[in-house]
Amino acid sequence: MNEQEVIARLERLPATRWHVKMRVLFGVATFFDSFDAVAIAFALPVLIREWHIAPSQIGGIISIGYVGQMIGALFFGWLAERIGRVKTARMTILIFGLMNLLCAVAQDYDQLFWFRFFQGLGLGGEVPIAAAYIAELAPSRRRGHFFLAYEVVFVLGIFAAAITGAWVVPRWGWQIFFAIGGLPPLIVAVWQRICPESPRWLASKGRLAEAEIALTLIEGEVAQSSGKELPPVGPIVERPPSPPTRWQELFQPPYLSRTIVVWVIWSSTYMLSNGLYTWLPTLFSTVYKLSVQDSLNLSIGPTVMALAAAIMCIYVVDRIGRRPLMA
Fold it and tell me: 295 near 284, Cβ under 8 Å?
Protein backbone atom coordinates (compact mmCIF):
# COMPACT_ATOMS: atom_id res chain seq x y z
CA MET A 1 0.00 0.00 0.00
CA ASN A 2 1.10 3.58 -0.67
CA GLU A 3 -0.11 7.08 0.19
CA GLN A 4 -2.28 7.35 -2.94
CA GLU A 5 -4.13 4.13 -2.06
CA VAL A 6 -4.84 5.43 1.44
CA ILE A 7 -6.40 8.57 -0.06
CA ALA A 8 -8.39 6.58 -2.63
CA ARG A 9 -9.80 4.26 0.02
CA LEU A 10 -10.85 7.21 2.19
CA GLU A 11 -12.37 9.13 -0.73
CA ARG A 12 -14.68 6.30 -1.75
CA LEU A 13 -16.31 6.00 1.70
CA PRO A 14 -19.93 7.19 1.93
CA ALA A 15 -20.88 9.63 4.68
CA THR A 16 -22.37 7.65 7.59
CA ARG A 17 -23.08 7.80 11.32
CA TRP A 18 -19.40 7.07 11.93
CA HIS A 19 -18.42 10.38 10.35
CA VAL A 20 -21.06 12.09 12.48
CA LYS A 21 -19.62 10.41 15.58
CA MET A 22 -16.13 11.70 14.83
CA ARG A 23 -17.45 15.20 14.22
CA VAL A 24 -19.36 15.04 17.50
CA LEU A 25 -16.35 13.84 19.52
CA PHE A 26 -14.11 16.59 18.18
CA GLY A 27 -17.01 19.01 17.89
CA VAL A 28 -17.83 18.86 21.59
CA ALA A 29 -14.21 19.68 22.36
CA THR A 30 -14.31 22.63 19.95
CA PHE A 31 -17.65 23.72 21.43
CA PHE A 32 -16.09 24.04 24.88
CA ASP A 33 -12.95 25.54 23.37
CA SER A 34 -14.96 28.53 22.17
CA PHE A 35 -17.12 28.47 25.34
CA ASP A 36 -14.03 28.73 27.54
CA ALA A 37 -12.32 31.28 25.28
CA VAL A 38 -15.09 33.85 25.80
CA ALA A 39 -16.15 32.82 29.32
CA ILE A 40 -14.03 35.61 30.81
CA ALA A 41 -16.21 38.18 28.99
CA PHE A 42 -19.32 37.13 30.89
CA ALA A 43 -17.54 36.85 34.23
CA LEU A 44 -15.87 40.28 34.02
CA PRO A 45 -18.89 42.48 34.90
CA VAL A 46 -18.96 40.78 38.30
CA LEU A 47 -15.19 40.44 38.75
CA ILE A 48 -14.63 44.15 38.05
CA ARG A 49 -16.83 45.03 41.00
CA GLU A 50 -15.61 42.28 43.33
CA TRP A 51 -11.87 42.76 42.73
CA HIS A 52 -11.97 46.47 41.75
CA ILE A 53 -10.20 45.78 38.46
CA ALA A 54 -8.86 48.83 36.59
CA PRO A 55 -9.56 49.31 32.85
CA SER A 56 -5.94 48.54 31.93
CA GLN A 57 -6.17 45.29 33.90
CA ILE A 58 -9.38 44.35 32.08
CA GLY A 59 -7.52 44.58 28.78
CA GLY A 60 -4.66 42.55 30.20
CA ILE A 61 -6.75 39.65 31.42
CA ILE A 62 -8.61 39.47 28.11
CA SER A 63 -5.46 39.74 26.00
CA ILE A 64 -3.34 37.22 27.91
CA GLY A 65 -5.66 34.44 26.83
CA TYR A 66 -5.03 35.29 23.17
CA VAL A 67 -1.28 35.40 23.76
CA GLY A 68 -1.54 31.85 25.10
CA GLN A 69 -3.68 30.82 22.12
CA MET A 70 -1.11 32.10 19.63
CA ILE A 71 1.71 30.21 21.33
CA GLY A 72 -0.45 27.10 21.74
CA ALA A 73 -1.49 27.08 18.08
CA LEU A 74 2.13 27.29 16.92
CA PHE A 75 3.53 24.74 19.37
CA PHE A 76 0.77 22.13 19.32
CA GLY A 77 0.37 22.49 15.55
CA TRP A 78 4.04 21.59 15.27
CA LEU A 79 3.63 18.74 17.77
CA ALA A 80 0.60 17.31 15.93
CA GLU A 81 2.79 16.92 12.85
CA ARG A 82 5.30 14.94 14.92
CA ILE A 83 3.20 12.65 17.13
CA GLY A 84 -0.26 12.67 15.57
CA ARG A 85 -3.57 14.49 15.61
CA VAL A 86 -5.46 12.52 18.25
CA LYS A 87 -2.73 12.39 20.91
CA THR A 88 -2.01 16.10 20.62
CA ALA A 89 -5.69 17.06 20.59
CA ARG A 90 -6.25 15.15 23.83
CA MET A 91 -3.33 17.00 25.44
CA THR A 92 -4.78 20.37 24.51
CA ILE A 93 -8.26 19.45 25.76
CA LEU A 94 -6.90 18.30 29.11
CA ILE A 95 -4.93 21.55 29.46
CA PHE A 96 -7.79 23.94 28.84
CA GLY A 97 -10.25 21.83 30.82
CA LEU A 98 -8.02 21.74 33.91
CA MET A 99 -7.10 25.42 33.58
CA ASN A 100 -10.78 26.36 33.41
CA LEU A 101 -11.34 24.58 36.72
CA LEU A 102 -8.39 26.47 38.19
CA CYS A 103 -9.91 29.73 36.93
CA ALA A 104 -13.00 28.83 38.96
CA VAL A 105 -10.97 28.76 42.19
CA ALA A 106 -8.72 31.76 41.47
CA GLN A 107 -8.41 34.01 44.53
CA ASP A 108 -7.18 37.20 42.90
CA TYR A 109 -6.41 38.94 39.62
CA ASP A 110 -2.84 37.63 39.30
CA GLN A 111 -3.90 33.99 39.69
CA LEU A 112 -6.68 34.35 37.13
CA PHE A 113 -4.31 36.15 34.77
CA TRP A 114 -1.82 33.26 34.65
CA PHE A 115 -4.49 30.55 34.64
CA ARG A 116 -5.93 32.30 31.59
CA PHE A 117 -2.53 32.25 29.88
CA PHE A 118 -2.05 28.50 30.35
CA GLN A 119 -5.68 27.90 29.43
CA GLY A 120 -4.96 29.74 26.17
CA LEU A 121 -2.20 27.27 25.30
CA GLY A 122 -4.75 24.47 25.18
CA LEU A 123 -7.47 26.55 23.55
CA GLY A 124 -5.19 27.73 20.74
CA GLY A 125 -3.78 24.26 20.13
CA GLU A 126 -7.07 22.36 19.96
CA VAL A 127 -8.79 24.29 17.16
CA PRO A 128 -6.29 23.81 14.29
CA ILE A 129 -5.60 20.19 15.22
CA ALA A 130 -9.29 19.28 15.32
CA ALA A 131 -9.83 21.14 12.04
CA ALA A 132 -6.99 19.21 10.38
CA TYR A 133 -8.32 15.86 11.67
CA ILE A 134 -11.88 16.48 10.46
CA ALA A 135 -10.68 17.76 7.06
CA GLU A 136 -8.48 14.69 6.61
CA LEU A 137 -11.45 12.37 7.21
CA ALA A 138 -13.84 14.30 4.95
CA PRO A 139 -14.33 13.22 1.33
CA SER A 140 -13.24 15.97 -1.05
CA ARG A 141 -16.56 15.97 -2.94
CA ARG A 142 -18.43 17.24 0.14
CA ARG A 143 -15.63 18.71 2.22
CA GLY A 144 -17.14 22.21 2.40
CA HIS A 145 -20.47 21.05 3.82
CA PHE A 146 -18.83 18.35 5.94
CA PHE A 147 -16.28 20.71 7.46
CA LEU A 148 -18.57 23.70 8.04
CA ALA A 149 -21.15 21.46 9.73
CA TYR A 150 -18.38 20.71 12.21
CA GLU A 151 -17.06 24.28 12.43
CA VAL A 152 -20.48 25.71 13.31
CA VAL A 153 -20.05 24.22 16.79
CA PHE A 154 -17.38 26.84 17.50
CA VAL A 155 -19.93 29.61 16.99
CA LEU A 156 -22.49 27.54 18.90
CA GLY A 157 -20.05 27.44 21.84
CA ILE A 158 -19.85 31.26 21.88
CA PHE A 159 -23.66 31.45 21.76
CA ALA A 160 -23.94 28.91 24.59
CA ALA A 161 -21.41 30.85 26.68
CA ALA A 162 -23.54 33.99 26.29
CA ILE A 163 -26.78 32.21 27.24
CA THR A 164 -25.20 30.31 30.13
CA GLY A 165 -23.34 33.35 31.42
CA ALA A 166 -26.50 35.48 31.41
CA TRP A 167 -28.30 32.80 33.42
CA VAL A 168 -25.59 31.45 35.75
CA VAL A 169 -23.35 34.40 36.67
CA PRO A 170 -25.99 36.67 38.30
CA ARG A 171 -27.57 33.73 40.17
CA TRP A 172 -24.76 31.38 41.21
CA GLY A 173 -21.58 33.33 40.55
CA TRP A 174 -18.72 33.39 38.09
CA GLN A 175 -17.00 30.42 39.76
CA ILE A 176 -19.81 28.04 38.79
CA PHE A 177 -19.73 29.42 35.27
CA PHE A 178 -16.02 28.55 34.88
CA ALA A 179 -16.59 25.13 36.42
CA ILE A 180 -19.28 24.34 33.84
CA GLY A 181 -16.76 25.04 31.08
CA GLY A 182 -14.06 22.91 32.68
CA LEU A 183 -15.68 19.56 33.39
CA PRO A 184 -17.01 18.40 29.96
CA PRO A 185 -13.65 18.76 28.14
CA LEU A 186 -12.08 16.31 30.58
CA ILE A 187 -14.77 13.78 29.73
CA VAL A 188 -14.27 14.36 26.00
CA ALA A 189 -10.53 13.74 26.36
CA VAL A 190 -11.35 10.27 27.71
CA TRP A 191 -13.89 9.60 24.94
CA GLN A 192 -11.35 10.44 22.25
CA ARG A 193 -9.44 7.28 23.09
CA ILE A 194 -11.80 5.54 20.62
CA CYS A 195 -10.83 7.86 17.71
CA PRO A 196 -8.43 6.30 15.18
CA GLU A 197 -5.43 8.31 14.11
CA SER A 198 -5.75 10.09 10.77
CA PRO A 199 -4.78 7.60 8.02
CA ARG A 200 -3.72 10.50 5.77
CA TRP A 201 -1.29 11.74 8.40
CA LEU A 202 0.05 8.25 9.05
CA ALA A 203 0.58 7.68 5.33
CA SER A 204 2.28 11.06 4.90
CA LYS A 205 4.78 9.98 7.57
CA GLY A 206 5.47 6.66 5.87
CA ARG A 207 3.74 4.70 8.65
CA LEU A 208 1.77 2.62 6.18
CA ALA A 209 1.23 -0.41 8.42
CA GLU A 210 -0.45 1.80 11.03
CA ALA A 211 -2.43 3.55 8.28
CA GLU A 212 -3.67 0.14 7.12
CA ILE A 213 -4.87 -0.70 10.64
CA ALA A 214 -6.65 2.65 11.03
CA LEU A 215 -8.22 2.37 7.56
CA THR A 216 -9.46 -1.16 8.19
CA LEU A 217 -11.09 -0.01 11.44
CA ILE A 218 -12.73 2.98 9.72
CA GLU A 219 -13.95 0.89 6.77
CA GLY A 220 -15.50 -1.65 9.16
CA GLU A 221 -17.28 1.09 11.11
CA VAL A 222 -18.55 2.78 7.92
CA ALA A 223 -19.77 -0.51 6.43
CA GLN A 224 -21.60 -1.34 9.66
CA SER A 225 -23.15 2.16 9.82
CA SER A 226 -24.31 2.15 6.19
CA GLY A 227 -25.49 -1.46 6.19
CA LYS A 228 -24.15 -1.80 2.64
CA GLU A 229 -21.08 -3.11 0.92
CA LEU A 230 -18.48 -0.40 0.44
CA PRO A 231 -18.04 0.93 -3.11
CA PRO A 232 -14.92 -0.18 -4.98
CA VAL A 233 -11.74 1.83 -4.71
CA GLY A 234 -11.39 4.29 -7.58
CA PRO A 235 -8.42 4.45 -9.92
CA ILE A 236 -5.16 5.09 -8.09
CA VAL A 237 -2.84 7.63 -9.66
CA GLU A 238 0.75 6.67 -9.03
CA ARG A 239 2.80 9.64 -7.88
CA PRO A 240 6.26 9.89 -6.35
CA PRO A 241 6.31 10.29 -2.55
CA SER A 242 5.57 13.82 -1.40
CA PRO A 243 8.65 15.68 -0.16
CA PRO A 244 8.64 16.77 3.50
CA THR A 245 6.80 20.05 4.02
CA ARG A 246 8.41 23.08 5.63
CA TRP A 247 6.66 25.99 7.33
CA GLN A 248 8.79 28.39 5.26
CA GLU A 249 6.76 27.34 2.20
CA LEU A 250 3.93 29.56 3.47
CA PHE A 251 6.11 32.55 2.61
CA GLN A 252 7.26 31.34 -0.81
CA PRO A 253 5.46 31.20 -4.20
CA PRO A 254 2.79 30.08 -4.88
CA TYR A 255 1.62 30.25 -1.24
CA LEU A 256 2.88 33.70 -0.24
CA SER A 257 0.00 35.68 -1.75
CA ARG A 258 -2.54 33.18 -0.36
CA THR A 259 -0.98 33.37 3.08
CA ILE A 260 -1.18 37.16 3.11
CA VAL A 261 -4.82 37.21 1.95
CA VAL A 262 -5.96 34.58 4.45
CA TRP A 263 -4.07 36.24 7.31
CA VAL A 264 -5.65 39.59 6.50
CA ILE A 265 -9.14 38.04 6.35
CA TRP A 266 -8.75 36.20 9.66
CA SER A 267 -7.04 39.01 11.56
CA SER A 268 -9.45 41.74 10.43
CA THR A 269 -12.48 39.54 11.11
CA TYR A 270 -11.41 38.38 14.54
CA MET A 271 -10.11 41.75 15.64
CA LEU A 272 -13.71 42.91 15.31
CA SER A 273 -15.64 39.83 16.37
CA ASN A 274 -13.51 38.80 19.35
CA GLY A 275 -13.29 42.41 20.45
CA LEU A 276 -17.07 42.57 20.29
CA TYR A 277 -17.63 39.30 22.16
CA THR A 278 -15.09 39.87 24.92
CA TRP A 279 -15.58 43.58 25.59
CA LEU A 280 -19.32 44.05 25.07
CA PRO A 281 -20.56 42.87 28.52
CA THR A 282 -17.96 45.09 30.23
CA LEU A 283 -18.83 48.11 28.05
CA PHE A 284 -22.53 47.73 28.80
CA SER A 285 -21.75 47.51 32.51
CA THR A 286 -19.06 50.19 32.93
CA VAL A 287 -19.73 52.73 30.17
CA TYR A 288 -23.52 52.51 29.88
CA LYS A 289 -24.04 51.74 33.59
CA LEU A 290 -26.39 48.81 32.99
CA SER A 291 -26.96 46.12 35.58
CA VAL A 292 -24.99 42.87 35.35
CA GLN A 293 -28.10 41.02 34.19
CA ASP A 294 -28.96 43.54 31.47
CA SER A 295 -25.34 43.68 30.29
CA LEU A 296 -25.19 39.93 29.87
CA ASN A 297 -28.63 39.71 28.25
CA LEU A 298 -27.81 42.33 25.60
CA SER A 299 -24.50 40.62 24.82
CA ILE A 300 -26.37 37.58 23.52
CA GLY A 301 -27.45 39.46 20.38
CA PRO A 302 -24.21 39.31 18.34
CA THR A 303 -23.81 35.59 19.10
CA VAL A 304 -27.31 34.90 17.73
CA MET A 305 -26.46 36.64 14.46
CA ALA A 306 -23.12 34.84 14.18
CA LEU A 307 -24.77 31.45 14.70
CA ALA A 308 -27.44 32.20 12.06
CA ALA A 309 -24.75 33.22 9.55
CA ALA A 310 -22.66 30.11 10.24
CA ILE A 311 -25.64 27.79 9.70
CA MET A 312 -26.49 29.56 6.44
CA CYS A 313 -22.94 29.03 5.19
CA ILE A 314 -23.23 25.24 5.64
CA TYR A 315 -25.94 25.05 2.98
CA VAL A 316 -24.45 27.39 0.39
CA VAL A 317 -20.67 26.83 0.56
CA ASP A 318 -20.66 23.91 -1.89
CA ARG A 319 -23.10 25.69 -4.22
CA ILE A 320 -21.53 29.12 -4.64
CA GLY A 321 -17.93 28.32 -3.71
CA ARG A 322 -15.45 29.40 -1.04
CA ARG A 323 -14.14 32.66 -2.48
CA PRO A 324 -17.51 34.30 -3.29
CA LEU A 325 -18.80 33.38 0.16
CA MET A 326 -15.72 34.85 1.87
CA ALA A 327 -16.07 38.03 -0.19
Answer: yes
Nearest residue to 86 (alpha-carbon basis) of 96, 73, 72, 76? 76
- Confidence at residue 242, expressed as pLDDT on a 0 to 100 scale: 66
Q: Is 180 exposed, middle or buried (0-12, 13-18, 19+ CB in 10 A)?
A: buried
Please state, in angstroms and as integers, the Cα–Cα distance from residue 123 to each residue in 74, 112, 146, 161, following that order.
12, 16, 23, 15
* DSSP type of residue 43: H
**CA distances (Å), 306 to each of 155, 252, 266, 269, in order?**
7, 34, 15, 12
**For residue 193, which of 311, 57, 86 has the smallest C-alpha distance?**
86
pTM score: 0.87
For the chain, helix, strand, coil in percent to 5 are 85, 0, 15
Segments of the chain scoring below 50 in pLDDT: none
Superfamily of 3-226+248-326 according to CATH? MFS general substrate transporter like domains (1.20.1250.20)
- Tell me what pLDDT residue 22 has: 87
The domain ranges of the chain are 3-226+248-326
Task: Decide: 300 and 160 in contact? Cβ < 8 Å.
Answer: no
Count of CB atoms within 10 A of residue 327's CB?
A: 7
Residue 151 has what pLDDT? Answer: 82
